């Protein structure tokens, strides 16, 4: 029997970052299927984007020096020698004293280095009066301005957003290598837990809440989900079902009961899945202290607190970053959070991180975070909340009006 | 021919909020499929949650008054008359001077009004020494504490989050009525645009970027997507394809070329789809001024700017709220944004809202928003950005170090 001391939130996040990585090799998927998946390798461009100089306005392609000094009172005069068609190559170059009409997005012909806007010219019988001078490069996107040949357009570890898929399209990539979506299995335990579709409850029974909250939260993180159902508080059946699910998944989540007996089972079952076993046994956090994190082989197993609201808060804090690790996602350069002021004093114990559920209110003087109180077992407290505020372990509390960061629930 | 004056961002958002609502009737879906969909009707509970009083600790169910004054030096003595099993009804009541052992989550028996924690008692041969007094209700969740019979647990218009599905499970709902996901069709136009899978480009050609960026952004908003492909700059084929797609969809997005000729086509095609026709023709915004919003029958049609980065910014500002309207989603009580300081001075024109792409940097003194510059046509500027900062129409610019809100790109 090993002994553990309770870890801080930061220590727990370090364990997650240090111990886990993608379990399965990258796969190749089409761009359309790659949304929100994580790129497994750097992507370099083999082309310039655009691969030709383009006009950014409707107007006339010219040599800038031919327009120098042009003004309303003293226009420059150029010969119009052609017209650029959209999507077509320019046929002839622009020589000294010449201009060619060009649409927005059209290809700037050889010889021309700029485009004068249609608003600043007048064309009379192939003679162009230019009333404003342009500088070299004006109103032109040069070849390679967007992407140069050899540029790394996206780095490995990036979760692919619409704009990322856009730049991949631009360079002609139609598929990319990404990490497969992790498979997350969820098993609820507890003699009092009955399936959510049981119509009439007997005294002492409650419906399974964690299966759906944790499963859907995992889906929001990009995981595929296996619903493991409910096992009674019996070591043999719990251990057997857990082993089956562990073998089918990349991450096993056990939503345990909260009684001492059940917690002991949960820990034993986690140890039984393989070495090195339990890494974190208890976190100095409220709610969610009885969280357990284990590693069996290379795969993570997490024992979540049984109270639904606690389970979901622990999910946000630890399981979401864990799923990101399993997808090879590089940590963001910033924490996504919004600033508000807390609407009342809240006391907290030093040495423990408290997570306060809050509702956001946009008032005349800014955004306020209004605490939603209730025992950690109450799922309704989370339904009424927009996010949570951390009172860090080194603080005794927060004062009314104090600036806080709110971590939004998705 | 109607004449339009350019609208502000706020006026455009008012048009969207005032003119559009769900086109199709609600559907019934299972809870598992309801994640991120929008509830179409208020849900009331027909039950109490929990439907019996539960212990929140391992301990003994007692009558609080029997423990009054108990302390380490002067314990109260109670007879242990039973043991509550998890998930089972309590068999007999707790009478004066009695106690029954109870696990966390167990059903508190009749007569008992509180639970004394196992840490604060000693049981010797069915005699319980109680070393700490408890108050009535202590360590007990009463029937209905989480949800009362008749409570409105979730209001119509709520996008269903994991915790919302959790409370629905708790009250025994296995399916809910939600608005169907809107079908969004996307059609790209432009003689220079070629499919993204074309390997080798001819001079003057560029690959289609907007189809994938706009389609995947629409998916992130919960929409189903129809890819309409690319039509050349020819009124007849453009109008015909647009009409086909309009009939199959709840929202048609036209990603037009940016030349004057193409913009005229786009407007004509939008008018041809039905009355009342164009509602917004140009927005005082940079980038994205040539945005067009029309209504044909009850359905919206949006003409996006052709430049990929502009198109995606306009999507975030106007199309995402429009898709929310089509799903019946009630506006959030707050704007999701994060606070940072801008890393340099940026000038802006009064009377126009500017959207500056920024990259976020977590520095020792807090979060900074570093502008990513580049012409609005460059998709790479969006790839390098984490979000955007608005310089509102009444401002001449922002100064280095000024606090700004960053709207994150998903």
**3D shape of chain A:** elongated
Please give the share of residues in helix of chain A.
Answer: 10-25%
* Largest beta-sheet characterization of chain A: 6 strands, mixed
**Radius of gyration based on Cα positions of chain A:** 31 Å
- Would you tell me which CATH topology of the largest domain in chain A applies? Molybdenum Cofactor Biosythetic Enzyme, Chain A
Largest interface: chains, residues each: A-B, 105 and 105 residues
Q: How many distinct folded domains of chain A?
A: 4
Low-pLDDT sequence parts of chain A: none
Proportion of residues in extended strands of chain A: 25-35%
CATH architecture of the largest domain in chain A: 3-Layer(aba) Sandwich
Strands of chain A, count:
28
- First-residue to last-residue Cα separation of chain A: 39 Å
Order of the strands making up the biggest sheet of chain A: 7-4-6-5-9-8
Instruction: Quickly give the structural class of chain A.
Output: alpha/beta
> Average pLDDT value of chain A?
94
Count of alpha/pi helices of chain A: 7
Q: Please name the fourth-level CATH homologous superfamily of the largest domain in chain A.
A: MoaB/Mog-like domain
Query: So what's the oligomer here?
Result: homodimer
- CATH class membership of the largest domain in chain A: Alpha Beta
